[in-house]
Amino acid sequence: MPKSLQDTTTLHNGVEMPWLGLGVFQVEDGNEVIHSVKSAIKHNYRSIDTAAVYGNETGVGQAIKQSGLPRNELFITSKLWNAEQGYESTLKAFETTLERLGLEYLDLYLIHWPVPAEGKFKDTWKAMEELYKDGKIRAIGVSNFKEHHLEELMKDAEVVPMVNQVEFHPHLIQQSLRDFCKEHQIQLEAWSPLKQGKLLDDPTLKEIAEKHGKTTAQIIIRWDLQNDVVTIPKSTKEHRIVENADVFDFELSQADMYAISGLNKDERIGPDPDQFNKV
Length: 279
Prior knowledge:
Layout: E1 8-10, E2 16-18, E3 22-23, H1 31-42, E4 47-49, H2 57-67, E5 75-80, H3 87-101, E6 106-111, H4 120-133, E7 137-143, H5 147-156, E8 163-167, H6 175-183, E9 187-191, H7 203-212, H8 216-226, E10 230-231, H9 238-244, H10 254-261
Parallel strand pairs: 3-4, 4-5, 5-6, 6-7, 7-8, 8-9, 9-10
Antiparallel strand pairs: 1-2
Helix pairs in contact: 1-2, 2-3, 3-4, 7-8
Organism: Paraliobacillus quinghaiensis
Site (Lowers pKa of active site Tyr): 79
Pfam families: Aldo_ket_red
């Protein structure tokens, strides 16, 4: 059970990844993302999650540089966009991401979506395996992959993905996917853990929050962590960034955990990975 913001989970290749980090989806490049990332680092966050398609890798890189923190104390994730999938284009896109971030290596690189084009993500994965073997990425993984995508990928893969970052929150608890990932030692990571704010007024969550003297957001983040799910809530406000990390001084009971999981509706706020093929 993580006890502080610096606590990590050990991925199946031995790399340590913080349980809680900052996501920067829909955070504007330039001042907004620089402020957000610097605030997070100042308040002891060590994991930052971005993506090529977010358009803010440059700002994230500037914030990392300005923070003055040694590179090896940070865990930086980015993701390969759909249009760049394929062997050669993945190698090229990765170099571009590194340049934008101003870094020499990534801690984690993910395939952003399982685009259905025949064999496409398999070619992409071969390139990622190569980058991994060359030491340019410490861990490789996927995002938005369902069980059948993972099975397809793993048929020919030399390296099993270390992480699968998916939409995960009390309305979408993804139990069978979680079981599958656990079985294959793939660490599950949640994006949109607060369902883009749509869960904050839920009566069950509010009641549990009141009982613990916490916010509904803190209850959800704590529920993620107690479910062994790495979590990257996004915020641009410094006080909210601090608040999101104030989840290590209490524990949800078994009854709380069941009540929150019982809110599941298998309802997404983002696209269904089987239908999403945007480039």
